[in-house]
Each structure stands twice: as C-alpha cells, then as structure tokens.
Amino acid sequence: MTENVDKFRQIKKKLYKDLCEAIDLSREVTDCEIMDLILEFITNEGQTSYFSLEDKKRMGKELFDAIRKMDVLQDLLEKIDITEIMVNGKDSIFIEKEGKLSKYDHVFESTEKLEDVIQQIVAGCNRVVNESSPIVDARLNNGSRVNIVLPPVALNGPIVTIRRFSQEPITMEKLIELNALSLQMKQFLKEVIQAGYNILISGGTGSGKTTFLNVLSDYIPKDERIITIEDNAELQIKNIPNIVRLEVRNANVEGCKEITIRDLIKTALRMRPDRIIIGEVRGKEALDLLQCLNTGHDGSLSTGHANSARDMLSRLETMVLMAIDLPLAAIRGQIASGIDIIIHLGRLRDKTRKVLEIVEILGIEDKTIHTQTLFEFVETKESKDGVVEGIFQKKKELRNIQKWERAGIHYQENNK
What we know:
Layout: H1 2-22, H2 31-44, H3 53-68, H4 72-77, E1 82-88, E2 93-97, E3 100-103, H5 111-123, E4 135-139, E5 145-149, E6 159-163, H6 172-177, H7 183-195, E7 199-203, H8 209-217, E8 226-230, E9 243-247, H9 261-268, E10 275-278, H10 285-293, E11 301-305, H11 309-323, H12 328-338, E12 341-347, E13 353-365, E14 368-382, E15 388-394, H13 402-406
Parallel strand pairs: 7-11, 7-12, 8-9, 8-10, 10-11
Antiparallel strand pairs: 1-2, 1-6, 2-3, 4-5, 5-6, 12-13, 13-14, 14-15
Helix pairs in contact: 1-3, 2-3, 9-10, 10-12, 11-12
C-alpha cells in the first residue's frame, strides 16, 4: 500500500512539472484547457496504466487543484464539516472536525508550492506578505479567516491557519436548537437590539463571537443605515439594504498608506450611520468605539476577547489607556455611559458554544462600574460521554428601560 502511495506521488510530481512547462503562459488559458491537458498527460504517461480509474480521476483533480486552486488545501476547503485548517510548514497539516484535532494525510510537494498558495491567498484580498512583512491576516472568497506567518518569524516553515465559517449563516433558531441559549434569552436580545441598546460581545478564541454578531444583526430594523468596520471582512449581514462595508488596509512597499480601524471609525461618523458595527476591538480603537457609543449612535455592536464580562470591562480600560492617558475614573465613566449590555460567550470542555452570561451595565459609583447579571448558564452535571448539561437562568430584571420605552416597546418583567 505504501509503495502504491509513493508511486502515485512520484508520478503526480513528474506530471505537475511537465504540465507547468507545457502551459502557454503568453495567453489566458481556461480551466477547460487545463483539464484537457491534464487528462492528455495522464493518458500518455505509461506508468499510470497500473492505477485504477478512480486513482486516475483523483490524480487529475489533485493536479488541477495544484495548478489552478489551492493544491492539497482545496479538498479540505470543499468539506463543510472541517472548521479549522492548520498548516505547520509543508510537511505538517492538521484539521479540526467536530471539535477534534487530527493530522491530515496529505502534504505539500515543496515549500515553494506552499508559498505559491500563500501568495494566491493574499493577492485575492489585496494584502502583501513577504520576509520583510512576514505576518498578515487575510480572507478567502468564501469568507474564511486566514492568518499567515512566514520565516524568519516562523521557524518551521510557512504557517497558515484557516478558520472556516458556515456557508449558510446560522440563525437564532439554529442556536436554540444547539442549546446555545434559551427562547427567553432570544426574545430579550431581539428587543434590546430593536430598541437600540449598545452591545458588546465578549468571549475567548473560537467561542463564536463573529457568528453571534451576525445572528444579532438579523434583528436590526431594515430601514436603518448600517456601517460595518473590520480588519478582515467576515460579517455576513444580508438583510439590511442600506449597508456600507469598510475594511482596513495595510501599508505596502508601493507607498499605500495604512488605513486603520481608528481611521475608519472617524470616517464612518461622517457617513450618517444609524448604527456602527465594529468586527472586533483589540487596541487603541477602543477609545474611538466609546466616543462613537457616546455620541448618539445607539444600537451599535462590537466584539472583544475576554474571559468574562467583568474581564471585558478591564480589557476596555487597558485598551483605552493604550490610546490616551486619561484618569481611570474618566475612562470608566465613558464605558459605563456608552455600553449597555455585555453578552459573554464560551466554549465548554465538550466543545459546545453557549451564551454563558448576559450582563447589564448599571453605571458608575465610587469610581467603580456596577453591573448585574440578567441571564446565566448554570452547569448541572456532566454525562458519562462528556456532554456538559445545564440550564439558562433568569437572574435579574433589566433596570435601564429608557431606550426600550423610547423605541415604543413595552417592557414586561420576566420578558415573556
């Protein structure tokens, strides 16, 4: 079996080299012409007579993927149940499927081929990565998030991490079906979005912040003007006709000036937005976010990395201090007046994602931000097969109902 695999790879490597030499680069060659050429070379290669028809078809597809698509990664990108692809140099590829990591059988033929795929990825979203600028965030046409790190920063070869998102946007109903939150929480969140509460979604890596932000956007009234601001355009907001999508730009050797999230927030404020949605705050832009939330853009949303809702408040303070030297009391005052609700998401040990906490910001007193937990996931037990079980509890009633009333929504206790 190993002998057949080695033979397959040797012939495929030879055919790939011959095909690259045979393709006429002086004109635009269509996919059909490439496929015809591949079939011709496989047919004329005497050693392929030992292979079955299925093996020849597989070789043809792999050669086409290597020439026109993303080589060994293409097959992984076509499988919707694979959520993460991790390339650790040309000889090591890992995948995440149903929350479990495993090593992939195939590898890149050479480091040069892996580098070709990387340049294809970054060129598709107008980014640049090379030895002088070895780290870049990019995206694929299907919305997948890509992080690339090249040598000399990466010691074991080019590193590519691809996080896949569902091609069909997840709905709130699907999240309830997955027991990520309760019906009562869904109704509450629907009404606070419609009423224009400023919401921050917190959580760790892989907790589903971007997905949840997409879901919440379904509740934004369709007659509003929305501006989204992202490092890499990942949001899939499709129900708003009046939407403007902005994306940062990195500086490059051709003299293009860097355009940051901070620049885009300032620009967005002049574009008559009803709401501004910032994909994620992770640095100095936290100051601009707070200024945006405190200047009448009710209903704005964003996400941030944190271990808890309370930790998100501390991280915001730190990020604002990165931008400007202000007294801590002043920063906390801006946070308390700008943010109404924090939704904290988590990924449990059984790999399920849940809304762990919904917290209301009450205000500031004695230089401390006061909060109260409105909803909370309480773990009850762990089954024999490792599934975490629990219940979603309503803890407190919303105190700040002014926005609710101004929006013409009658607040009912227990939100029934």
